[in-house]
Amino acid sequence: MTPLSRRTVVTAAAASLLAGCAGRAPDRTAPAAHRRPASSPPPSAASSGTPTALGRSTPVRLRIPAIGVDTPLLRLGLAADGTVQVPPVTAHDRAGWYRYSPTPGQTGPSVILGHVTVGAYGDGVFRRLAELRRGEQAVARLENGRAAVFTVDRVRTVAKTAFPTEDVYGDVDRPELRLITCGGPRGGDGYLDNVIVFATLTGTAG
Description:
Helices cover 4% and strands 37% of the residues. The chain is mainly beta. It has one domain: Beta Barrel (Sortase, Chain: A). The strands form two sheets. It has an eight-stranded mixed β-barrel. Strands 1-2 form a two-stranded antiparallel ribbon.
């Protein structure tokens, strides 16, 4: 990922019944905000209590055993209006990794999005995301054969009108994971809330 200067954060469009799970998102120049400065190395396991950060490798699969998730991962970018893309609505729903965020296990917040419902097809891949609890795990399998194991720190349900952009996309000094879907009651434009899972890297494999 090439270092780029950070610019303004753009506001996501109103959510529809099937999409809009990303809340707000940075534009294409935002990835630098997700990384520590080049002069500051990632924390070591000895100094931080977390495993050493992994190198960049595209995630290909996500497993969350506690809620029965085992999904291939799509690569998501930005839509023409500057909002984060969401996975397509299909019968075989899959989650997607936001490719302008760090890959799972890199220093910074890696962002993965999924639907809670997919219209006529029924439940989405993240239909039970709000049931996750502190201490449960999510495992991201990477293209290079390694796996990044994350442990849930907290689960938040927030109004889409008050999406916590900095908490989700802002810079952090360790490898973290964000899982995002829609939630809460439905209004005229769809779901009114976002469910956001915050997790920290606690192990690696492979």
